[in-house]
Amino acid sequence: MSIHQSSNIKRITTHTLQEMKNRGEKISMLTAYDFSMAGIVDAGGVDIILVGDSASNVMAGHETTLPITLDQMIYHATSVVRAVKRAFVVVDIPFGSYQGNSSEALRSAIRIMKESGAHAVKVEGGAEIRESVVRILSAGVPVMGHLGLTPQSIYKFGTYTVRAKEDAEAQKLIEDAKLLEECGCFSLVLEKIPASLAKKVAEKVSIPVIGIGAGPDVDGQVLVVHDMMGITQEFKPRFLRQYADLRTQMLKAVEDYIDDVKSRDFPNEKESY
């Protein structure tokens, strides 16, 4: 019987994740933003649930992750935490809530931890946010870093193309990864960078490295659950493997329901009081 099916459920911790890297066991990570989806993902046995600021896109319909607020992230995180029995829950600190002001970064992180009950926070960037990372860690809050394509900086990049293909940017990414490890981050996410570079980073740092569009030679993988379940189908990057086609199934269910209502087949006698 697998761990997540056992009555003796053991929660994933930062220590668990480090042990997984040390023994070469891959780490699974998916996003979730609400109670119902988080319960399904957790019951499936995922190791880490990310309450991502991608909620701005898939839940609220924004073009970028920038509009989502700290209050909204805490709302989503609180909903997720209520459902989770095993997975380690990480919450994105949203844009504008930690960059450039370490005191604000600390306040944001503490609010997330106190109000949602989450287990860690995630921030985007390297040397430029070092002060904020150190300040958050000083309060005992676990921090996951995020390098490569950082969606909160999309207007600086101007494109969602692969990052760190040039030597200078690749070298900075390696240096930033080492810096975040030295600061005390327990893990890193690498997004949309060459697989060879991701492999090099995973070998140079001792903490777990989670990839999304970063090839197979990192310590784990993360996807947005709405993408891999086929709920959102307009977003189809190379790195996405779609494991289900829930949008088609849900559309069919809605259409069947409407047909049954219109034809007066629903509710029938057994479905009435």
Describe this structure in words.
- This protein is of the alpha/beta class.
- Helix 6 links the parallel strand 4 (120-122) and strand 5.
- Strands 1-2-3-4-5-6-7-8 form an eight-stranded parallel barrel, surrounded by seven helices.
- The radius of gyration is 20 Å and the shape is globular.
- The protein has helices spanning 14-22, 35-43, 55-58, 70-83, 102-116, 130-138, 154-157, 167-183, 195-204, 225-228, 246-262; strands at 27-31, 48-51, 88-92, 120-122, 143-148, 187-191, 209-212, 220-223.
- The chain starts with 13 loop residues before the first helix and ends in an 11-residue tail after the last helix.
- The chain is built from eleven helices and eight strands.
- Helix 2 packs across helix 4, helix 4 runs parallel beside helix 5 and helix 5 crosses helix 6 (130-138).
Largest sheet: 8 strands, parallel, barrel
Cα(first) to Cα(last) distance is: 41 Å
Classify the secondary structure makeup into a structural class: alpha/beta
Give the percentage of residues in beta strands: 5-15%
Task: Tell me the radius of gyration.
Answer: 20 Å
- The average pLDDT value, as a whole number, equals 95
Helix content: 40-55%
Number of beta-strand segments? 8
Question: What secondary-structure arrangement, pairings included, does this model have?
Answer:
Elements: H1 14-22, E1 27-31, H2 35-43, E2 48-51, H3 55-58, H4 70-83, E3 88-92, H5 102-116, E4 120-122, H6 130-138, E5 143-148, H7 154-157, H8 167-183, E6 187-191, H9 195-204, E7 209-212, E8 220-223, H10 225-228, H11 246-262
Parallel strand pairs: 1-2, 1-8, 2-3, 3-4, 4-5, 5-6, 6-7, 7-8
Helix pairs in contact: 2-4, 4-5, 5-6, 8-9
